[in-house]
Amino acid sequence: MFLVFIETREGQIKKSSLETLGEAKRRAGELGEDVEAVLVGANMDCLNPEIFSSGASKVYLLENPQLARYSSQGFTAALALLVQVAAPKAIFFAATAMGKDLAPRLAAKLGVALASDCTKVAVREGKLEFTRPVYAGKAFLTFGLKSSPQIATLRPNVFAVSESRTAAGEVIKKDVAIPESVIKGQVAEVLKEKGEEIDVTEADVIVSGGRGLKGPENFALLKELSAIIPRSAVGASRSAVDSGWIGHQHQVGQTGKTVSPNLYLAFGISGAIQHLAGMSSSKFIVAVNKDPEAPIFKVADYGIVGDLFQVIPALKEEFKKLFE
Amino acid sequence: MNIFVFVKRVPDTESKIRIHHETNSIVEEGLNFIISPNDEYAVEEALRLREAKGGQVTVLSVGPEGAAVILKKCLAMGADEAVLIKDDLKETYDGLRIAKMIAKAVEKKFSNFDLLLFGRQSVGADNSQVPSMVAELLGLPQANVVTKLEIEGKSGTASREIEGASEKVVFSLPAVVSAQKGLNEPRYETLKGIMAAKKKTIPVVSLEELGLVSDEVSPRVEVIKMETPAARQAGKIITGTPDEAAKQLASLLRNEAKVI
Fold first, then answer.
1. Are residues B135 and B247 in the same domain?
2. What pLDDT score was predicted for residue A193?
3. Is the C-alpha dihedral spanning B85, B117, B10, B37 positive or negative?
4. Residue B217 resides in a domain
5. Which segments of A178-301 are extended strands (E)?
6. Number of structural domains found in chain B
7. Same domain, B138 and B241
8. I want to staple B246 with a disulfide (CB 3.0 to 4.6 A). Which of A111, A175, A290, A315 is the partner?
């Protein structure tokens, strides 16, 4: 059995969890294994049927009032109890902020190695084989894990959600006992940055800017463009972030975030090696830059050599027509 | 406060990575190594906490003798002590292996501490595993990817970055915290600091001294293949006035690339 951790935010299942479930279903299928899903929290009644249509045959709801808010220690303890009885062969998480926080903690509790942020999973001779970018995508590592269960986190936006016909399966509610002394740290509240719903790691389209934007005020142009495009987010190069033009959570590149959107629009970004490493796995890249020699053009599928301050307003009008 | 900071030696982010295909590892010859950039935020935060509350900052690294260079840098920044846990294996990409060494070292040699600080991720292996694993092995609370940290008595509050938001984590000390860009602005070494660091010796701790037998620290990540990504081909340059170019681009993205 493959177990998939399903993450929720404000009662909604994260898309990346369904992508992870989809990939688990495909790989488990090759090995003749079932896929089961697990949610951790308190009073979970809003269970979404998507979990079944995305591949799970069984869903565990691990409940305890102490788990209403995320705690790495509490969630690890709950998952470890389930692992003991359900004995999965593999456990998959989406490589989200929570997945990256939780999966290594569970792996250490179970005493097993972890495959982080995988972009490919395969089955070879009955064993799982993982591929992941290292050095922010300057190289790719393919490897197996010599411990069991096999735990992996899967990068958001890379794997497809599965369209299975299973409409419903079994739901198993379990009250998990967690001694109060286990939880020594917990989330107290979630603070939202106003108007920013999607992170660059989750966006389908990234509208990104660099030094060519000339100043912080011009990031407003990118925000306006992004507002027109569904599921898009604003990104930035390191030099724009280091100049204080935009928050570091937008930074794409080796010391920022590595991203794989369907479309990466680079405005006024020259394409330093650290930046290229972080965005080269985007499916399509568009570069707009004044300098025809900018390295970004070497990786761009479409390039416009020109003034971004003229191109962006024109592009806004065109995109408005497309998305209206 | 007694603070331990864990730092890692990694290839400079400016480096081009080449691969040794017989060994499936990166070619180290000619590479410039630096302290992993995220770790610098951890060192800086430790120094600021010491300046505010008193105490001691000890910097540790797991790695080959060459890693002493980054420990010297941390001493020059102002750390009180530095220790090298000597591990001669090249990058194994196995976070649990390193976490075990760190947890063992903390238990055996440095058990009196308030805070274990890390960078949120080494720039290279890109695993983001070790801080959480160390926290679990030592039974400590954790706050990862932290952009704000406040310590009050025996408890801490951290802002941790999540998708499109941040969450406030409240925890008791001792604890594990991993630093993210935005936490602070790391200081440069001063000449005085560099001179003082030169005089300090860096004790080296072997895995045998920690009582780790080879089986416990043998890598469980079995590398099958390492390769560089296929080079992207430069694409189409769109010409014309900004209006014409924008029109053509929108049409290509919808009809040819089919991405919007």
1. no
2. 67
3. negative
4. no
5. 185-192, 205-209, 232-236, 263-267, 284-289
6. 2
7. no
8. A315
Q: Classify residue B57: in a domain, yes or no.
A: yes
The answer to whether residue B126 neighbours chain A at the CB level (below 8 Å) is: yes
Q: Kindly report, residue by residue over A218-235, the tens digit of the pLDDT.
A: 999 999 999 999 999 999
List the domains of chain A with CATH numbers: 2-182 (3.40.50.620), 205-323 (3.40.50.1220)
Say how many CB pairs under 8 Å bridge A and B.
Answer: 289
> Which phi-psi region, left, alpha or beta, contains residue B69 (left: φ > 0; alpha: ψ -120 to 50)?
alpha
Give yes or no: residues B131 and B185 share one domain.
yes
Interface contact A150, partner B, CB < 8 A: no
Instruction: Report yes or no: A77 at the B interface, CB cutoff 8 Å.
Output: no
Question: Complex ipTM above 0.90?
Answer: yes
**Structural domain boundaries, residue B12:** 2-206
- Angle, nearest 10°, between helix axes B95-109 and A97-110? 70
Task: Tell me: pLDDT of A236 over 70.
Answer: yes
Do the Cβ atoms of B245 and A311 come within 8 Å?
Answer: yes
**Spatial separation of the C-alpha atoms in residues B142 and A245, rounded to whole Å:** 31
Q: Do A4 and A36 form a contact (C-beta atoms < 8 A)?
A: yes
A255/B137 CB distance under 8 A: no
**Which H, E and C letters describe A252-282, residue by residue?**
ECCCCECCCCCEEEEECCCCCHHHHHHHCCC
Neighbours of B80 (CB within 10 A): 16
B160 in a structural domain: yes
Residues 10-69 of A with CB under 8 A from B: none
pLDDT at position A194 is 63
Residue B241 and residue B137 share a domain: no
Min Cα–Cα distance to chain A from B221, Å: 5
pLDDT tens by residue, B109-151: 998 999 999 999 999 999 999 999 999 999 999 999 999 999 9
